[in-house]
Structures are given as structure tokens and as C-alpha cells.
Amino acid sequence: MDLIVAKFGGTSVGDGSRIRKAAQSVVNEYMKGNQLVVVVSAVNNATDELIELSNEAIGGGLTDKQKAEIMAMGELTSSRLFAAAIESLGVKAEFIDPYNDKWPVITDSNSLNAKIDFATTDKKCEGIKNLISQGIIPVICGFLGKGPSGEITTIGRGGSDVTAFLLGHCLSANNVVIVTDVDGVMSTDPNKIEEAELLDEISVEEMRDLATHGAQVLHPHALKYKDPLISAKIINFNNGDLSSEGTKITGPFEGDMLKTVSLYKNPISVIAIVGEEMLKKVGLLADLTSCLAENEINIFGISAGQNSITVFVEKKDSDKAYHLLHSWVIDEDVLSSLSLGDDTAMITVVSPEFIDEPGIISNITNPLRKNDINIVEISSSQTAVVLFVDWKDGEKALELIKEVLK
Fold first, then answer.
1. N or C, which end of the chain is more exposed by having fewer CB within 10 Å?
2. Strands (E) located in 260-326
3. Which residues, 6+ apart, have CB-to-CB distance to 54 below 8 Å?
4. How do 144-146 and 152-154 pair as beta strands?
């Protein structure tokens, strides 16, 4: 007997017939002898409509507490409808919302972007386990939490995905099934490229990066609760079958999903190349990287300005790279010269939460500035910040950054 946590997104409960179809898929699994927990989102667009309605009625006068209570109405309604639909099919179900004593997801008091108290949530899940053991299917509101004073909170966009993986973890589920309006994870957006193909599986890290960079299929924050022992997949609600194949999400995330800071073990050398209007030369960067790749020299970082390109390679390869690139510079009419700089240390900071964290760059760089540590180069993406500092300052910079990110 498996314990399945099935999360139904807003589109999959978009109208009465879809709710009944979703409920039937849950009952079908229950009849196979499996245990079920349902996490349900608000009916499609309901939350946006509630926000728009409140803005029209009240304008900017709502408090965050009032906003959270209004936004919660979508999930409060859909959980009741879903539980009733299951019971109409002959199986016992109980809707669980933050007003219920069995409510499991406990957070801090931040009304609109609450942080989950994992330890307390884990303990509160005993009430859900008791329902399951009685043969009752709990239908739990996604997206919502309960604060320290019993107030409703929300855990941000994509919160229903977070709820599903969080409960899967705390309940030691066998499977987490994300039911949505696509067949699974595609090789790219099928609305843009018709030849997009369905992936049979994708790793947690790949899924996190894809979601962080705009894929709407799953919220990246949810994956930090992906237990390595739990199977997970994304399927289409149109199938009406929780055993559908879809795309399997494999493996655990290696390391701390919140923030990781690391110092590369070896010195990194800087090679700077200059030339007027070099960025107007088509294929210049391709030629540069090919030159080094053909000689098995790895590039650890590269940045381009109007009149310069900076390349970072491991110190052991720097002399070879320097001579190779010198020959290339001489042959290119838009390039004039290059230089081999001092050794640097490379520090990498990774977090899926950076995309939602304003000021992260200044938080990282301010302690370095205050301690007179010069940043040679910095680059960032939606999930990572990479800094190069003087080699002698590497260890100190690492400790300063670790301290500020605690």
C-alpha cells in the first residue's frame, strides 16, 4: 500500500466537471488499496479575481492580514468542493483548512510571504496521519499556512507545489503527483517550438533551474522539500489517472537547497583581452572559446565589455592559454593586446531563492568592501552569484560571505 500526495493545480479543478474527474482519479487509486492525501489550489484564476475585486472595492487600504484572508478564499472553496466530490463517489474525505485543529502547515507571522516552521509542521502532521489511518482522504488547502497566533498566512506564488512536497516529506509518502495542464516537462516551450518533446524524467537540480528561469510547470521552492526516498512526477489532468506516466522527477538535491557557499580549491588566473569595437565582430567569443576548448582548457568565467573580454582559467593552464590567445589576438584585426593578471580565488554562492531576494548582491559584497577585499569580477544568474577576489583574500572572503548568509 502506497501513500500518495496528489496536488491538483488551478486548471485541473477549473470547473465542476474537472473537479469530479479529479476526485474520481483519487477514488480510483484509493480503491486499489492506496492511501491518498489531496492538496488543492484555488479554482483557475480565482485568486487573481479576488485580488482584483478587493482592489476595486477598497484600493490600497487593505492590510496584509486582510489580503491573506481574502486570497485564501479560493483554496477554502476548492478544498470543500473537492472533499464533497470524493464523498459523492462513496469514499470518506475531510477538507482541512487553517481554521481546522488538524491543520498542519505552520509558519511565521508574515501574512503574504510566510516562512514555514518545518519542525512544528512535522509534528502537526500527526493529525493528518490519524485521518489517513482511519481510511479518510484529507483534502488540504495548498498555498496557505497558519501563523503563531492562528492567523491565516500565504506562502507565496507556487505555494501549492510547496505544500505538496512539504507534506510528502513530513508524511513519508511514497509518491508526490503534481497534476497540471501539461503532459509533463517538455524539452522547451511547445507554444514556441512545435517539435518540443516530453521528457521521461528530469533531475531535481535540472527541474529547479528550469523552474527558476521561467518554466511554469513547478515552483522551484517546492523542490527543497523533495525527499530522496519519495518518487515524484508531473502529469496532465486530462488523463484522469494518477498512475499516468508524465515526467518523473529523480533524485535529491545535492546539498543545502537554501544557500551554499564554496571556494574553488585552486587559484584562477585572469586573462584580459582588449580591442576597439570588439563586440561588433560576429563570432569573436565563439572563436575565443573554441581556441581554448580545442586545447582542452576549461573556462571558469568570462565577461565582455565594450572594448574588453576577461577570461578566467585555472592557474595550471594559464601560461598555455596566454600564449594561445596571444596568437589569436595577433591574427584578429579588432584586437590589440592582452595581459595575464594576478591569481584569484573563485567563490560561488548558490540558492534557488535569489530570484525572490532583492539586495542579495549588496548583502554579499558589503562585508567584503568593509574588510578592504577587492572584487576582481562578479557575475550572477537567477540562482547563483560568482565572485573572483585576490587569491590571498579567498578564505577570508568565504567566511565573511558565509556569516552574512546564515
1. C
2. 260-263, 268-274, 299-304, 308-314
3. 62, 67, 70
4. antiparallel
pLDDT at 221: 77
Domain count, the chain: 2
CATH number at residue 218: 3.40.1160.10
Residues 235 and 358 reside in one and the same domain: no
**What is the per-residue pLDDT across 68-110, written as a single tens digit (0 to 9) for each?**
999 999 999 999 999 999 999 999 999 999 999 999 999 999 9
The residue type of 289 is T
The three grid cell numbers given for residue 278, joined into one nine-digit string: 570588439
Q: Which three cell numbers stand for residue 125?
A: 502532521
Would 255 be classed as within a structural domain? no
Is 168 part of any domain? yes
Whether residues 18 and 90 fall in one domain? yes
Residue 114 vs residues 120, 144, 145, 153, 224: alpha-carbon distances, Å: 14, 9, 8, 6, 16
Q: Are residues 284 and 203 both part of a single domain?
A: no
Count of alpha carbons within 13 angstroms of residue 399, beta-carbon side: 4
Residues listed for the chain = 406
Cell match 583574500: residue? 393
β-pairing, 152-154 with 35-40?
Answer: unpaired
Q: Which position has the higher pLDDT, 254 or 67?
A: 67
Q: Are strands 299-304 and 308-314 parallel, antiparallel or unpaired?
A: antiparallel
- Residues 158, 31 share a domain: yes
240's grid cell: 484522469
Domain limits at 230? 3-250
